[in-house]
Amino acid sequence: MSTRKESPIKKFRLMERPLRQEEFHPGERRVGLDDRLDFACAGCGDCCTDTTAFLTPYDLWRLARYLHLTTDEFLKKTELFLDGPDGPPLLQMAHDPATGRCIWLDEDHRCPIYPVRPLSCRTFPLGVRHTPEGDLITKAHTLPRCRGEGGGSQTVRAYLEEVLAPEDGEWSRAYAALNRLLFPPGERRARDRAYLAYCLLFLFDLDRLPGEHFAAKFAAAEARLRRAAEIF
Ligand code: SF4
Ligand code: SF4
User: Fold this and answer.
1) Per-residue pLDDT averaged across 89-101, rounded?
2) What is the spatial distance between Cα 184 and Cα 86, in angstroms, rounded to a whole number?
3) Phi/psi of residue 188, each to 5°?
4) Which residue has the least CA distance to atom 7 on ligand 1?
5) CB–CB of 34/157 below 8 Å?
6) What is the C-alpha to C-alpha distance for residues 21 and 28, in angstroms, rounded to an integer?
7) Domain annotation covers residue 10
8) Could you tell me the distance, in angstroms and rounded to a whole number, from the CA of residue 170 to the centre of ligand 1?
9) Average pLDDT, stretch 28-44?
10) Which of 34, 141, 172, 226 is the most buried (most CB within 10 A)?
11) CB neighbours of residue 48 within 10 Å
12) Residue 7 — pLDDT band, cuts 50, 70, 90?
């Protein structure tokens, strides 16, 4: 029997239209699956300071299970980030306020949760966005001192197949779609504190919902949140 894992990018449908310059973050550029990526992280941990390690609900679920914590206990190790004046709420790993270091980075500049680190940490320096027009892959600007640039040579496809779990695409796409429904661009819904708290609770504190596995819990969360979005 083959032990080869299912390709995590098999269900990717890439966005086709050209992007406007304002749709990129500073220093970011679009890449295709067959483009070369000359990069291999040297593991110095420098990029775990003053940066954002975003969490999807599936990330938080996996991390809580790995650390034998409840999702409520893990939520206390995160911070809320509002993406611009009208943008949606994003959850990120908490930082040490004195140093800006991610709270997980240890004294040896290692990540002790490396096997289940968030999707945004795993794909770096690539970024994957799931939009209504399809999936978009970008290459981020790295720190000037990053030793990863030029350190390896593979395709974007091979890099993503190595770092993504098979179900990452499905659950990050589902989260992106739900986030768009809950926080439509320009509506400033994330600035309503009661609504924001309710949405974050059911998006991320999945232990409070029925079901044993992530799929059942996310479906229960989605049903409640769709109702909340309708009556907002
Ligand atoms: S700064 Fe570059 S080499 Fe260092 S951990 Fe981050 S990606 Fe890896
Ligand atoms: S979770 Fe790990 S890899 Fe991600 S920023 Fe924190 S220490 Fe770095």
Assistant:
1) 95
2) 9
3) 55, 30
4) 41
5) yes
6) 10
7) no
8) 27
9) 94
10) 172
11) 23
12) confident
